[in-house]
Amino acid sequence: MIFPFCAVVDQEEMKLGLILNVIDPSIGGVLIMGEKGTAKSTTVRALADLLPEIEVIKGCRFNCSPDGPFCLECLEKKEKGENLEVEKNKMEVVELPLGVTEDRVVGTIDVEYAITYGKRHFEPGLLAKANRNFLYIDEVNLLEDHIVDLLLDSAAMGINRVEREGISFFHPARFILVGSMNPEEGELRPQFLDRFGLCVQVRAITDKNLRKEVLKRKIEFDTDPEGFLKKWKNEQEDLSQRIVQAKKNLSEVKVPEEIYKTVVDLTSQLNLDGHRGDIVLLKAAKAYAAFNKKDSVEKEDLKKVVLFSLRHRLKRLPFEEPEMEVKKLYELLSIL
Amino acid sequence: MNFYQSFEDIFPEVLGNRTPKLAIFLNLIEPRCGGVLIIGKKGTGKSLMLNCFKKILKISNLPFVEIPIGVTEETLIGGINIEKTIEKGSRVFEKGILDRAKKSFVLIDDINLLPDEYLSLIFEKAENFNLVATLNPEEGVLSPHFLDRFGMCAVTEDLKDPSNKQKLLKLYENNYQFEDSFLEKYESAIRKIERLKVLKEKVRVEEFIWDKISETVLKEFVFSHRAELFLFYVSLAYAAFKGEFSLKENHVDEVSHLVLLHRKREIEKQKVSEERQKEEKKEDKEDRQDLKPSGERKEHKKENFSQKEKDRSESSEESSQIKMSFPSNSKEEIFGVGKVFKVKRMIFEKDKTIRSTTGRRTKSKTRLKGGRFLRSVMFSKDKDIDLFGTIRSAAPFQVLRGRKNKLIIYKEDFRYKEKERKISHVVSFVVDGSGSMGVQKRMEAVKGAILSLLMDCYQKRDKVSMIMFRKNQAEVVLPPTSSSDLAYKKLKDLPTGGKTPLSLGLLEAYKLIKKSHLKHPDTRIILIVLSDGKANQAIKSGEDPILEVKRICSEIGKLSYVDSVVIDCELKNNFLKMDLAKELAKWFSGKYFLLEDLKAENLVNLVDQIKTEHLNLV
User: Fold this and answer.
1) For the residues B239-251, what does the mean pLDDT come to?
2) Which residue, A13, A155, A208, B90, is the most exposed by fewest CB within 10 angstroms?
3) What is the ipTM of this complex?
4) Is A139 an interface residue toward B (CB < 8 Å)?
5) CA distance B367 to B378
6) Number of domains in chain B
7) How far apart are CA B199 and CA A273, in angstroms?
8) In a domain, A84, yes or no
9) pLDDT of residue B324
């Protein structure tokens, strides 16, 4: 039984960040930074309930989309001229545990099959499962370096290429990366950090009334989960309906010429590395506009998403908080 | 066609970035150009560039293989084909990726993330194929030895022009199908390549070009012969690219940066220094080689000064000519913390101990569940069975054992996993706070260096401790801790002044090392001594202070779990130069660095430099 997403008190930034990624998966995920016990994991897991259905090729172990790119198995079928059937599957949140092994991440030889039949056969790993789904890593900053390397490799190309133990295989691995971390426990490698589309901050709620509400809801859920879910059912359905609608409308959302200019002006003044900041900012603003049923992006939409699109890309000196740059960002926003 | 316009048509998915585009294009016209290394910071289009290259190879049906980061040794160099082996009853081998790669292109994204063992396997056979790879210098770089294997190196950059940036946004706001876009442009590029391949055979080469090439290479203090060879082919392809029929000097000039960028060493330093200093440098190098015969890499690893640093050292040179005062030992001062920089990576060799700790600095064999799989072994205490290895070793005997369907596995078939993961160290700083360090605010630079090292330790999850010696005492100012902030606070307030009881400081370090070894016998300890080595006070009165130092050093040198590093803080342009710290490193049998040489690895600096230096293509 999963705690309903809508019942999570406050933490609007985190919720919005996740929702925007459902609307446009190419935003590239969310990094959630915050202390322990601020509903990071609860919220991500709760997301599963809201996820829409996507079209996949029937029977494909790698969740291939009917529009491609395809895995090796689907490609072979296509070449043989077989008709690829399409079915609908719900998107999932796939968890990557910290102690995971390389084999488990990229996939490996199916040992059982090898022992029984003496033949090699590819057994998909977590990256296969995560294709076109959410890949969630709790305490992502504690993930071992060599696992991070593997994730970086597939995230860059959107393909998981396996060359292990005599197996040669590839399949698409376009996952939406969601990580949560407590920054005090250590930082992420810069290259990995940049792979997260958005970066949201969660803070412990200090408002007494809100805290009371958190406590009440949690206890209510624990004592009567079914009743609690029923109570939130309508709200959950409304939200998931709204997301589906926004997903449909996304391609219709127009971007006025001045918005491009504003984005570029903004990022040029902030001294960022690379162009991911620009692209993510625009995509997030578009998704936000779609979420609010608008047909074109406005400056207000940019303002709403700019902080979590750029926060983790601001340069900072060692032993220095990025506050200076954030301040600058706010100043620039006030001119907008 | 306009020369610049032609760059927009090569890989239309990538805006700007003419240099890497040119490099890849020349490499396609003439594969003897020796491959391309694409360097760039995150989000500047490295992987995209590699993908475009792959696309063009696919469309023109050229053979290529890709090596993913998760590759295993087995598939890289080949191994047993278990299916056939089981059937035949004797070992049947199959080729690895590297054998299949003969005479084709090899693509590696983020090449620096591959473990060193695999890199050497790949580069061993690098003659057989044309390697195109990407590298993000923020994540560590390749050793110069490997770098030299690449014919060309090009840097990807951010777009500067706002209108170009807007263009990029429009291109990437919608997710288009990468594979099917811009096909006409790709096809016209392929036709162009075919044309130029023919054309390049007709390019005339006159005698003076050979001189020009050698001169160009030597001017940049590059000594590798590969550089000349590659430069020739690259220039030739470039002449064809420009549609000319004879190879001219300006062709060589215009592409020389592609070939020389990753081979340059401390060029700026050499430019400014005078003959005499050059001589010294050579001696320096030789000494260092003596110190560490296994570390031939070291020789190449010296740093490029950034422009600012150069200015600073020049200005300090000037001031040293004016003010040649002798160090006064009586004054006591607290100096500020100097400039912080990114520290060069110090590599310590793996040892044999199997540990169960983790960290981020040095690789070590591990007993823990995780870790990178290294190899299959027959004996292991930890009984972590390598299933595939076991099947592989059982495979040849299946016929003999009379297999019907399920594999028959005996006890002797069992293979175990040997894994490695990174560990952290305890880093012990021994800081000289004597009066001689106060000369020309030397201590400021030293503090800056320590802070830089501290940051590095923090990122690598090392514990740090600090010992300060000056006047008549040595003091543990910071017992081993994981808090770098605390260390920073202590560092800020360290005073300078007085005599140099180096031996006492080292003795204190020795005690500290012994103590922490007793507590955590698995931990490797790094001892970093920052001093000019001018010991002038002994522990026992009447003893020779230098002799004392020597004795303690060799004691510490004997401890197998300690790696020592000496950072020479002496001002090298001073006529009082004594190079005592170098001796110190010898006694430790440890590493030796000049304070100025601590700065991060070459390529990181180079990438930063490139941004200011505008590449002249036309």
Assistant:
1) 90
2) A208
3) 0.81
4) no
5) 16
6) 3
7) 40
8) no
9) 38
Same domain assignment for residues A30 and A132: yes
CA distance B111 to B147: 11
Residues of A in contact with B111 (CB under 8 A): none
Chain B contacts in chain A segment 45-104 (CB below 8 A): 67-69, 99-103
**Are both B509 and B578 inside the same structural domain?**
yes
Same domain, A130 and A279: no
CA pair distance B321, B533, nearest whole angstrom: 23
Task: Give me the residues of B, 18-77, that contact A with CB < 8 A.
Answer: 41-45, 47, 51, 66-72, 74-76
Is A183 found in the same domain as A38? yes
pLDDT at B600: 59
pLDDT value for B24: 93
Query: Which residue of chain B has the CA closest to A152?
Result: B110
pLDDT at B294: 41
Give the closest-approach CA distance of A178 to chain B in angstroms: 19
Check B68 against A153: CB less than 8 A apart. Answer: yes
Q: Which of A164, A211, A242, A276 is catalytic?
A: A276
Average pLDDT over residues B129-138: 88
Q: Which of residues 175-214 of B touch A (CB under 8 A)?
A: 175, 177, 179
Give SS3 for A136: strand
For chain A, what is the domain count? 2
Within a domain: A10? yes
Contact criterion met (CB < 8 Å) for B139 and A115: no
Q: Are strands A198-202 and A30-34 parallel, antiparallel or unpaired?
A: parallel
Do B477 and B401 share a structural domain?
no
Is B2's pLDDT higher than 90? no
Yes or no: say if B469 and B362 are a contact pair by the CB < 8 Å rule: no
Cβ pair B445, B595 in contact under 8 A: yes
Question: Which of B18-27, B548-557, B589-598 is predicted most confidently?
Answer: B18-27
A167 and chain B in contact, CB less than 8 A = yes
Kindly state whether A252 is in contact with chain B, defined as any CB-CB distance less than 8 angstroms. no
pLDDT in tens, B256-310: 989 988 887 644 444 444 444 444 545 554 444 444 444 343 334 344 434 444 4
Q: Does B345 touch chain A (CB under 8 A)?
A: no
State whether residue B139 sits within 8 Å of chain A by CB. yes
Those residues whose C-beta lies under 8 Å from the C-beta of residue B394, and which sit 6 or more positions away, are B407, B408, B409, B410, B413
Check residue B276 and give its pLDDT: 43
CA-to-CA dists, residue A107 to A62, A65, A223, B315, angstroms: 11, 20, 40, 58
Q: Confirm whether B131 is domain-assigned.
A: yes
Residues of B in contact with A146 (CB under 8 A): 371-372, 421
Locus of tokens 């430099």: B609
CA distance B44 to B165: 12
How large is the average pLDDT for residues B604-617? 46
Determine, yes or no, domain membership for A326: yes
**A113 in a structural domain:** yes
Which two structure tokens, joined as six digits, stand for B537? Answer: 């006070």
The whole domain housing A182 covers 5-52+91-202
Contacts of B173 in chain A (CB under 8 A): 255, 279, 282-283, 286
Q: What's the pLDDT score for residue B560?
A: 83
Three-state DSSP at B562 gives: strand
Q: Residue B549's domain spans which residues? A: 333-372+422-600
Among A235-244, B210-219, B312-321, the minimum mean pLDDT is found in B312-321
| Contact yes or no for A101 and B170 at CB 8 A | no
How many residues are recorded in chain A?
A: 336
pLDDT per position as a tens digit, B203-217 = 999 889 999 999 988
Nearest by CB to A120, from B42, B83, B485: name it. B83
Instruction: Report the CATH number that the domain containing residue B514 is assigned in CATH.
Output: 3.40.50.410
Distance from CA of B168 to the nearest CA of A (A): 8
Look at residue B140 and tell me whether its pLDDT is greater than 80.
Answer: no
